[in-house]
## 1
Amino acid sequence: MHQSQFLDLGDGKILASIGQHKLHRKLVLFNLNWLLENSRSCDFSNGLDDWSAFNYKKGIKGHCAYDRIAGCKLVDNPNSPGKKCLLLKYDPDDTLVDDTRGAVWNFPMARSGEIKLLAKFLKGFKGAKLMLHDRWINPSDPNAKLYALFAFDLPESFGDGSLRSLTVKFDAEGNLAELYCGGMKIASAQIARKAPIGISYLHLQSLKKTQDAGMLVMSVSEEGR
């Protein structure tokens, strides 16, 4: 959204011009009601359009840019033939600025709410981090946990091939978030700093452990209050 411009077309419609380079310049038309939504969901039926899931290649190009590669990829959903899911796993690569694998999903800003995540933890899963932010953070940033409002560890013990339903209940004003697995609370976290306007990003990130089989994210949803 760098140096974006907006034009009010009337009837609740806004036209936005975003991007600088001619290869990345876009015109986006949206309804103002979109700004008032308080829920979002993703089952990857539109691919990775809703996600940031890349890594940076070493070597600055031009003014201040890095080339990118896909850090996470879509694979066949083993539980739903014909559908896709997101594979998050560590894959060592010394050509990258940092080879941590991550995926970031944006949802409507909320001071409190619930995030539901359906994921299959493959045998050989080596652990991951689940973080909540109030701003976009580079998916592979090794310091992402330092910026997180809430952070949870998804333990290696999850890696038994099971399909697990995770729920994060967060309350930025109450300074608390709780992680549930199958309806049972397994962890809680205190907020790391104040979040006066709320939370709007889910960030999943691999641990840097070799021979990681990874986890399959089937779907995610959020409902704010």
## 2
Amino acid sequence: MRYKQYLILIAIAAMGTFGGCSSSKPDSQEAKKSSTSGEHVHDDGTVHKSHDEGHSHGEGPHGGVVADWGGGKFHVEFTVNHDKQEATVYILGDDEKTAVAIDATEVLLVIKDPATQVSLAPTPQDGDSSGKSSRFVGKHENLGTVMEYEGSISGVVNGTPYSGNFKEVAHDH
């Protein structure tokens, strides 16, 4: 129980500064914006909206928002499947591309608005070593809403807490 309280406190403390790129399915208005430069539509219909606010991680290897975890030691990539009401977070290395399996039992996703907290369970990918995972998945009905999400991702790796902030941003170029 203390572990979850600790993760919640980390997530709340981390809600200050947000940055990242986005991947979300467009609604009819978003579809009109998606033909502008800096955006592209993936085969599965998701739209990546790039931006530059002085520091950008760019698009993650799965088309999602990349956030820093631990001063660059790790990165996390947030993706959402609105149809399944499911979020997936990938743990990446310092190169922001290579999957890194960690020994965490869960990763906590906190969405700012609507206020939502989702515990993501380890869902190992091919190549993850036994007892570790580089992918964490969770479901919540609020993830079915097509919008730009803003929040934090936190977890504990080898006894060290990590937290990273992300924000999906719509652009009107």
## 3
Amino acid sequence: MRLVDLSLPIRNASFDTQEQHIEYTDHYEVARGRAKAYGINLDDLPVPGVHSAMERVTLSTHAGTHLDAPIHYGPTSEGKPAKTIDQIPLEWCFGDGVVLDFSWKQAGEVISVDDLESALSRIEYSLKPKDIVLIRTDRWKDFDRPDFALRHPGMGRESTLWLIEKGIRVMGTDGWGWDIPIPMMVEELKKGNKAAFFPGHYAGRDREYCHVEKMARLNELPPYGFKVAVFPVLIERASGGWCRPVAFVDD
């Protein structure tokens, strides 16, 4: 079995627009701090002057590769209080993976229902409930570009709802976000086109689902016939959780 890491790293000076900062503390600095706290000399440590390394991380729950919970889209979903990330059933986060290739789509293009149907026809696959559908854009390759957040196509309201109607609870993309780039949506909103503002996200107010953003290496997967896990970090009452998606490909 081949394991494929489907995540992007969290790191300093990232072109991801979500705030993220890592403070690194090496073995020697930690040793000095701990020796002072414990009231001991540095030479008292088993290896004099050396203890354990550690980091302090400050970041949004939507930085890096992460799973959005229904409460991210709005306070309610299907007329009920929307689930937070710690309320997502683990069963939703592990299942048969399906990759739909839209790497030919340009930045700002909306992936339609017809696009989804055509992609499924090309790979001769019929969706079943609890499949995890992964939207391949190949824009993860732009992670080191300053305009990383501006280069992806996105899902629309109708296409997102269409997947949900097929029984899909979790879906994901290797683009920066699920919808088209935010500045493009803002321009439409300024023109009075409210329906063009986060239509994929806001579809979750009507039908319950989760999506993963900022995935990677979907191009290394077959169209189907593999398992995928997208378990989020357990953060109480959060609207999202960092995850390290992994595909399990039987070679």
## 4
Amino acid sequence: MDIDSSAPEHSSGAIAGMTVPQARELIGAHIIQVKLNEKQCAALEAEAAKWRGRAELARSKNAADLQAEAERLAAAAETKLAALKAETAELAADIKRLFRQLPALAARERSVDPDLLLQELLISAGMNPGEEALLGVERKFAALEKDAAAGAELAALKAKLAGGGNGA
């Protein structure tokens, strides 16, 4: 069934690709539409009852033309009522389906943005955003310098041991 044009266009019940606030807004719009439909249903029920009563009055007064018109109007109101009830039931089913999908949508949303967190950590470390590539280079050079220093110390120790063992 087609829902009111003021309702959001996502009426299929699927909320994939939406944010939690968007999904909640869609659910809210559906609930509002259900409430409006319920009020319209009550008005249509009253209108159908009014025309059925008038048809009965016309029948009792032997006014066949008025009776036929009243019955036609009562039937038209009942047809609108049936369509509106079907739409309302579809919207209610959509609401239930959307509520069931909401926790999964919330779970898929990141509660912490790792990219933003990295940028904040870089800024805290005194680096500008975009300098994270330098971190990797800095680490590699630090490792190379550490290995070179350790290698030099090892060579000096070996030379000392080699020189100290011949002299003793």
